[in-house]
Design a protein that fits this description.
single chain; 33% helix; 11 helices
Length: 451
Amino acid sequence: MTLRSDSNFPTATEGLTNARTKIVGNRTGFIADTVITTVRLARGVRTFVARLVTRAAAVVTPLGWVVFAAIPVSLLAGYGFGWVELVVAGFAGIVLVAVAILYLVGRNAVAITLDVAHSRVVVGQEAQGTVVVRNAGIGRTLGVTVEIPVAHGLAEIAVPSLARGAESVQRFAIPTRRRGVVAVGPARTVRADPIGLVRRELVWTGTSELFIHPRTIGIPSMSAGLVRDLEGTPTRDLSNSDIAFHALRDYQPGDERRNIHWKSTAKTGTYMVRQFEQTRRSHIVIALSLASTDYATEDEFEMAVSVAGSLGSRAIREIRDVSVVVSEKTPEFAARKVFAVRSLSTRSRERLLDELAVVEAAETAIAITDIARVAGNEVAGVSVAFLICGSAATPTELRAASTKFPAGVEVIAVVCDPDAAPKLRTAPGLSVLTIGYLEDLPKSLARVVAA
């Protein structure tokens, strides 16, 4: 067999656009190979230096970079100008760097686990995390510092020296002063020199989330009596099948045979079928305003979120059709206001409170009147509508909001005002509840039922 080289194919390099052809073209021979080898070596050195710089940047602190830069400057200036002090400072810096590097050598032979006892708590309720550090090595470990990021803060735990197989259980508090979602972790150990020239972090765990729910209050079933009173009430909408009989009419193609009224058919000689009135089935709408213009203080908004959570939780517990909606926000650079609402999950009480934990008031959110208009148009079959806002919403705005729902819908506005005494005002198609504390809500709803 005869071996054939590229020289036997004059067009072997035509159209080739790899790195070699870009550097030396179609040239071959010793010089071309030397150029290619040099380029390869330069790329390898550049990759090695880049990795070294990346690793150094990950462990060297800003103070460390200052010391590293000061060492050659001190030595050159000291020897150049004959300043012994600068020479001493330069060598002192070298000693400090050498000692700092020793702190980075090795790895802690430990195993760390992070656990958050509960994934959901109520605002203000005590919450704790647990860190378990176990010596997984064959010898005794030195003491380590474990850092756990908690929201925007940092929990530092000093773990003492551990014998082989021993473990240390440390607990730390998680702040729950305000509702929201708190990210806990990851747990990491820190190796650093006493001066702070270098710092190496080792991540041991993942991140856990803690949902801090708004405070809610139990609402007795009697407070939902207004919903039950509406169920089964006939409406003016006619239906071919329901429970409220309306009248008889002539049979039309497509009517169900089970609705034929045989006695009337026998008397008239033509088929007659029953006509029904469509009865109302309760569908509750809970509309929470996120417009900061509807609230005088932040406490009013927090109370409003708690009211929405309390009403929604009760409706979900009673397995009712419920829609919980909040204001949509207009984007910062939008040309027009966005008239829309966002529906929260009502699949379970926990899912609803999870989403209420992260709602925030905003100046660009639509106000209570616009929420009522959108909800009245988008949510079908509404029987009871709760409009939740603060004391900044005027009576005129609340009356206007109540008119956005179809006739026959029971509209209840809940005004959250910590400075006011609980009271009830009624108007045709509208009940306005003013509460000063969340605990006022059950009694106020009971007054609506009795009214």
